[in-house]
Design brief:
By secondary structure, this protein is α/β, with parallel strands linked by helices. It is 35% helix and 16% strand.
C-alpha cells in the first residue's frame, strides 16, 4: 500500500474506517485507527445520545459530544493518521455538525446518505478535507460539477460505495433484493473514468476509496489493482476491542450467520442491510413500534407514520438490546468470529498488500 496525499496531509495506510452510528464509531475507535496510520471516522449520527439532556436538547447535546469525541480521537491518534467525521445529509443538524467538525480541526468531513451539495460551504476557511460517498458515476459527476460551479472546489477524495455495504444504501430495494445492482468493480472503474476531466481541472489526482463488502487483504489488493488509492471498511471494525459500542453489540455480529443478513426498509425510505433481529422480525410481520418521543433528527421522517424510530432502534442496538435494536451490517458480517484489537486488525488488512 502506498501513502495517499489528501489535501495537505499524508495518509500512511489508505484504509478508512467507515462511520457507524449511533454510537458505534466515536472517538475511541476513530482515534485508535488513526494511531495505526489509517483514517478513523467518527459518526455524526446523534453522537450525543449518551448525554443526560439528549432527549430535550438533542442539537446541543450532539454538538457538545462531537467536540469531545474529536478531541478524544485526536489525543489517541498521537499525531498519526487522520481523524474524520461522517455526516449524513438527511440529518436535520448535519450541516451544523459539519461546521463543528471543521472548526474543531477534523482532518476530513465525509458526506453520505444523500448528495452533500452544500458541504464546501460548511468547512470554508478551514483546512478540513471534504469527500462525498457516491454509488454511481452519475452522482460523482453531479457533485463535482456542482461544487466547482458554486464553490470553485472539487472533492479532496471520493468514497465509492457498492451494494454490499451496511446501513443506508444508494440503491433501490429491487436492485438489492434481486441482485441487480452494478458490481463494485464496475462502479469504481466508471467513477475513476468520470473524474478524469475534473482531475485535470484540479491539477492533481482525486483519490478514490472503494467501499462495500470489503473484508480481507485480498479484497484490498484487488481494489488497488483497479487503480483505487485505498478502501473504506466499516463492519470489520465492529469486532474490535476499541469499538465504542457495547460488548453485547459486538457479540451479536460474532453470533450472526449468513442467512441472518437481510435487506430492510429504513423509516426514512431508504433500503439498508442489517441483521435479522427480533425488531426486524416483528416489522416483517407487519407489527409497528409506535414512536414515543421524536427528536426531529431526520428530514424525511414522519413520526406519525413511521413503523419505528430509527434513532431509538440504533441506540438500543449500540447498548446491546438485541430485542429492540437495529443492527446495520455489511454483507460479510457473518465472517466475523473473534474480537481483535485495532492494531491486530490493521495488520491483517495491510498484510502482503
Amino acid at each position: 500500500m502506498k501513502s495517499v496525499l489528501i489535501k495537505d496531509k499524508w495518509l500512511d495506510s489508505p484504509v478508512i474506517q467507515g462511520g457507524m452510528g449511533i454510537g458505534v464509531s466515536l472517538g475511541n475507535l476513530a482515534g485508535h485507527v488513526a494511531a495505526n496510520g489509517g483514517m478513523g471516522v467518527i459518526s455524526g449520527a446523534n453522537p450525543g445520545y449518551r448525554q443526560p439532556d439528549f432527549a430535550k436538547n438533542r442539537r446541543e447535546a450532539n454538538r457538545r459530544a462531537l467536540i469531545a469525541e474529536i478531541r478524544k480521537a485526536k489525543e489517541l491518534s498521537n499525531g498519526r493518521g487522520m481523524v474524520a467525521v461522517n455526516i449524513m445529509v438527511a440529518l436535520n443538524d448535519g450541516e451544523d455538525l459539519a461546521r463543528v467538525a471543521a472548526q474543531q480541526g477534523a482532518d476530513a468531513v465525509i458526506g453520505g446518505a444523500g448528495l452533500p451539495l452544500s458541504l464546501p460551504s460548511l468547512v470554508e476557511g478551514t483546512k478540513t478535507a471534504i469527500a462525498p460517498i457516491v454509488s454511481s458515476a452519475k452522482a460523482a459527476s453531479l457533485i463535482c460539477r456542482s461544487w466547482k460551479k458554486h464553490y470553485g472546489v472539487l472533492p479532496d477524495f471520493l468514497v465509492v460505495e457498492g451494494s454490499e455495504a451496511g446501513g443506508h444504501l444508494g440503491f433501490s430495494s429491487d436492485e438489492l433484493s434481486n441482485h441487480l445492482a452494478c458490481p463494485l468493480d464496475q462502479i469504481v472503474l466508471e467513477v475513476m473514468e468520470t473524474i478524469i476531466p475534473f482531475e485535470a481541472e484540479k491539477g492533481g489526482s482525486i483519490p478514490v476509496f472503494a467501499a462495500g463488502g470489503i473484508y480481507s487483504s485480498e479484497d484490498i489488493r484487488h481494489m488497488l489493482s483497479l487503480g483505487t488509492s485505498g478502501v473504506q471498511i466499516a463492519t470489520r471494525f465492529i469486532a474490535t476491542h476499541e469499538c465504542d459500542a457495547s460488548p453485547e453489540y459486538k457479540q451479536a455480529y460474532i453470533n450472526a450467520k449468513k442467512e441472518d443478513i437481510v435487506i430492510v426498509k429504513s423509516p426514512v425510505g431508504m433500503p439498508g442491510r442489517a441483521l435479522r433481529s427480533p425488531l426486524i422480525e416483528r416489522l416483517e410481520l407487519g407489527q409497528s413500534q409506535p414512536v414515543k418521543s421524536c427528536g426531529n433528527c431526520l428530514r424525511p421522517c414522519d413520526p406519525a407514520k413511521t413503523p419505528y424510530c430509527i434513532t431509538g432502534a440504533l441506540t438500543a442496538a449500540a447498548r446491546g438490546d438485541w430485542e429492540n435494536g437495529l443492527f446495520f451490517c455489511g454483507s460479510n458480517a457473518y465472517k466475523l468470529d473473534e474480537i481483535l484489537s485495532v492494531k491486530e486488525l490493521m495488520a491483517q488488512l495491510t498484510e502482503k498488500v
